[in-house]
Design goal:
By secondary structure, the protein is α+β, with helices and mostly antiparallel strands. It has 7 helices and 4 strands, in the order ββαββαααααα. The termini are far apart.
Length: about 200
């Protein structure tokens, strides 16, 4: 169907006409181009295109431009835009893709997304630290029955080590490993901490 046939006159008064337009003519790129072309018609005083409601309102001077002349020039402009492919389905799809990409970009740069990224990273770091603790943990529930006091102390030590690894994990991976000599005192403290942890696991 030709695009002109989809423009339906909803109101016509002296020097004023309002059309119901199809969605493919209400897209941002087409709407701007169409309003500029209509505004350039001699006798037209104002053009308002309401994209959400799909309405096109044109006010004009009938002494300069009759309604029939306005309609002919409008339909001629629509035919030209249609020949250029502005109303083609592919153009609509491209515009939709651009809109979705724009929304994705806004979401990626939003504060909510940054907050979610931080939480995801923190969860991954916690999981990695938990693996380290899991390798160093005691021999399961049996230790609790054999020596409850030692089992509780070992558990609290595990929690402390887990917490320390978690809060320092980013520095460990991005700074300490890259420049071990610069952070030699931090590595010494880390090795000593693991020495105390391993020493506490040894049977008396």
């Amino acid at each position: 169907m030709a695009i002109q046939k989809e423009f339906v006159v909803r109101y016509r008064g002296e020097g004023h006409v309002r059309f119901q337009i199809p969605p493919r003519a209400a897209r941002a790129e087409v709407a701007k181009l169409l309003t500029d072309k209509i505004a350039a018609i001699a006798g037209v005083s104002s053009v308002d295109l309401f994209r959400r409601s799909g309405k096109l309102s044109i006010r004009y001077d009938e002494s300069v431009c009759r309604f029939i002349d306005l309609a002919r020039q409008l339909f001629a402009e629509l035919a030209g835009l249609e020949q250029q492919g502005w109303f083609a389905p592919q153009a609509v799809a491209d515009a939709a893709n651009k809109s979705r990409l724009g929304l994705k970009h806004k979401f990626k740069t939003s504060k909510i997304n940054r907050w979610l990224d931080e939480k995801i990273i923190a969860a991954k770091e916690t999981a990695q630290a938990a693996k380290v603790i899991g390798k160093l943990s005691s021999q399961g529930p049996k230790a609790l029955f054999k020596d409850p006091e030692k089992a509780v102390i070992d558990f609290l030590n595990d929690i402390l080590i887990l917490y320390l690894i978690k809060i320092h994990w980013t520095r460990i991976t991005t700074q300490w490993l890259v420049k071990p000599l610069v952070y030699r005192y931090e590595w010494m403290a880390t090795f000593y901490l693991f020495f105390l942890l391993v020493r506490s696991r040894k049977p008396k």
